[in-house]
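User: I'm writing a tutorial on reading structure tokens. Could you give me a worked example: one chain, its sequence, then its tokens, then a sentence or two explaining what the tokens reveal?
Assistant: Sure. Here is the example chain.
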Amino acid sequence: MSKSLDFEVPVVKLREKIQELKEIAKNADVDMSTEIETLETRLQQLETKIYTNMEPWDRVQVARHAQRPTTLDYINEIFSDFIELHGDRSFGDDEAIIGGIASFNGQPITIIGHQRGKTTKENIRRNFGMPHPEGYRKALRLMKQAEKFKRPIICFIDTKGAYPGKAAEERGQSEAIAKNLFEMAGLKVPVISVVIGEGGSGGALALGVANRIFMLENSTYSVISPEGAASILWKDATLAKQAAEAMKITAYDLKAMNIIDGIVIEVAGGAHRDVQAQANELKECIHNALTELTILSETELINDRYDKFRKIGEFIEEEVEVKVDGKVDVEVEVN
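And here are its predicted structure tokens:
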């Protein structure tokens, strides 16, 4: 059993016990404040111990938590005067991607993000946060609109990946994602992307070509899910935990490789424990990034974005001796 499943049991039982004591104290008019305070202290200590010693697979589980804050949760907490805009002006409106105009500290901005549900009914409506091509085309339409009116763009990434169904492929899923990558690279306004949950494959990258990329501490960002990687590499999806460790998909791994620009620390117990407090942390991060980027010219913004992605990854040049027609020659080999 995964450690992430093991540690939920004592934490959940402790929370239930605290709630039970609060109900007893309320209904029986008995002073149990000392007992409740003792248990709450124990709970805080337990959560701190758990959430400061997490393995990659544990972070995957937290990123997938059913009550983890979504794009709409952060929009409601961070921004004001949000107006949602719909449709790609070509096929329809994809509710797996939400976008519109809002105000951030008095500044007009465009917000675009993946949106998944917290209940079965809402997840079906949102297609579990997996966009169709029209979702990415809607996102691109809003990005080009933001560029026209010189509004900064804030993207929230939270998807297992683009929807892989037959209808999505027939309507040009790959082309829609590729066009987003191409167009985002040349946007003349600041672009900030934040991975708030799962950042899976091209479905996430289609909102990820940004000047600054941040990740919540317990989010993930990868080319494929751990289960998918395990199925391909070892023909066994149950080895997802080992795959998560090998893939380097956590915020700390990606920051160490300079793929992302910063990590937004989560509240004790995960972002779902206190949405408002988590939103305040994220708001400060966005404010600092916008302050840094809004002073750049259009050309500087494009060059900044280009340089960021150009520097991702490393290569080493080595001189090697090779024989050609019996003669020794020197070639440069790139690894």
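What the tokens reveal: The chain has two domains: 6-53, 61-311. The CA atoms of residues 158 and 215 lie 11 Å apart.
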